[in-house]
Amino acid sequence: MSVAFVPERLRGKAEVNQETLQRLLEENDQLIRAIVEYQSKGRATECVQYQHILHRNLIYLATIADTAPPNGQRTAD
Asked: Domain range for residue 26?
């Protein structure tokens, strides 16, 4: 299951840290490799599920980036 997938009942409670982000980036790397492999074998329909997971992961990363304070700025304690 994708690192970015969080059940509805747990949303908003998941901690986002460097380890989680790194695991997500590594998962995306694996997904891209699988998609490329399937496409190179002419099996594009099989890669659709991986494309959906990759898309969800990218949206999750974009959401985190949008809510994070700009570099060099601290949030109020």
From this structure: 17-67
